[in-house]
Amino acid sequence: MIQVVSTPQWRAREYRREQIFQLVGALIVLFALTTLVVLLTKILLDGFARLNPEFFTSFPSRRASQAGILPALVGSAYLLLLTAAIAIPIGVGAAIYLEEFARRNWFTRLVEINITNLAGVPSVIYGLLGLQVFVRTLMMDRSLLAGACTMALLALPVIITAAREGLRTVPKSLRDGSLALGATQWQTVRYTVLPVAMPSILTGVILSLSRVVGETAPLLVIGAVVYIGTLPDSLFSAFTVLPVQIYNWTTRPQHAFQENAAAGIIVLLALLLTMNALAIYLRNRYQKRLPI
After folding, report:
1. What share of the chain is helix, strand, coil (3-state, %, to 5)?
2. What is the pTM of this model?
3. What is the largest CA-CA distance in the chain?
4. Is residue 69 helix, strand or coil?
5. Which CATH superfamily is domain 54-288 in?
6. Cβ distance 219 to 147 under 8 Å?
7. Where do the structural domains in the chain lie, given as residue ranges?
8. Which of 3, 14, 246, 258 is most buried, judging by how many CB atoms fall within 10 Å of its CB?
């Protein structure tokens, strides 16, 4: 057995190390917060004046004072809804099967490893995959549907992982009690397991969709246009989204377009903060309704 001899000199030295560590940690946090505040202040000062009704209801224009984000805003909303409609049923269904029904064998473990690895793949790789599979092979062209399918692939690993973690938090006693009362395995999952796991599932779904809203690289690869003067009217229409529109404005040398980009960033940040706040609200609301 190893005995640690505590002396006044040793305690003083360890106390100094602890104080230095706390100081370094505080300085790092302060630096990060200062940088964030400076960036947000710069964006607000540059773009707040452009946040007027015309900015939200106008189409892009070569004149910065007349340019708006209506097609990008509508395209982002359509893309988000389509991505959710594709990714949520597949992701939650896959998580339920892997966690509740699948046998524990080499194939299941291989699938789990691949899902975990896919969550860390750079987003541009999903863009290249979507370009080859959806745009060229399935001949969806550079359309809203191709973009939604590509972004669904991006969101699926996060949704599956979050849903599985939520299902694992459900106590085994609830499953055993439901089965003992005569319920089938599916009835147990549907009426007992899912309601308890719903807060974690919803949080993972909304956070993954928040990532979808802010992604640019995959959509640029599959052909989201940077300048469009119409709204999408079908699943196979051309489209653009807020990050792509912001990227287009930042490439312009005129200062007025930089102000438009700052205003677009403010709108995008507000959308992301709203989705994150919704995730927290839904999680807390469902947690209060838990039967345990």
Report:
1. 75, 0, 25
2. 0.82
3. 78
4. coil
5. MetI-like (1.10.3720.10)
6. yes
7. 8-50, 54-288
8. 246
Grade residue 283 by pLDDT with cuts at 50, 70 and 90: confident
Fill in the DSSP letter of residue 136: I
Measured distance CA(69)–CA(241) in Å, rounded = 9
Which amino acid, one-letter code, is at 15?
Y
Q: Using CA atoms, how far apart are residues 75 and 77, in angstroms rounded to an integer?
A: 5
Q: What are phi and psi of 32, to 5 degrees?
A: -65, -45
Alpha-carbon span 91 to 215, nearest angstrom = 19
Single out the residue of 204, 207, 176, 178 nearest to residue 190, CA to CA: 178
Is the distance from CB of 176 to CB of 260 less than 8 angstroms? no
- Contact between 205 and 159 under an 8 Å Cβ cutoff? The reply is yes
Segment 252-280, tens digit of pLDDT: 888 888 888 888 888 888 888 888 888 77
What contacts 187, CB < 8 A, 6 or more positions away?
178
Contact 241, 219 (CB under 8 A): yes
The answer to whether 238 and 228 have CB atoms below 8 angstroms apart is: yes
Mean pLDDT of the chain: 84
Check pLDDT > 60 for residue 37.
yes
CA quadruple 96, 99, 105, 106: dihedral sign: positive
DSSP string, 172-209: HHHHHHHHHTT--HHHHIIIIIHHHHHHHHHHHHHHHH
Tokens of 222: 């599959």
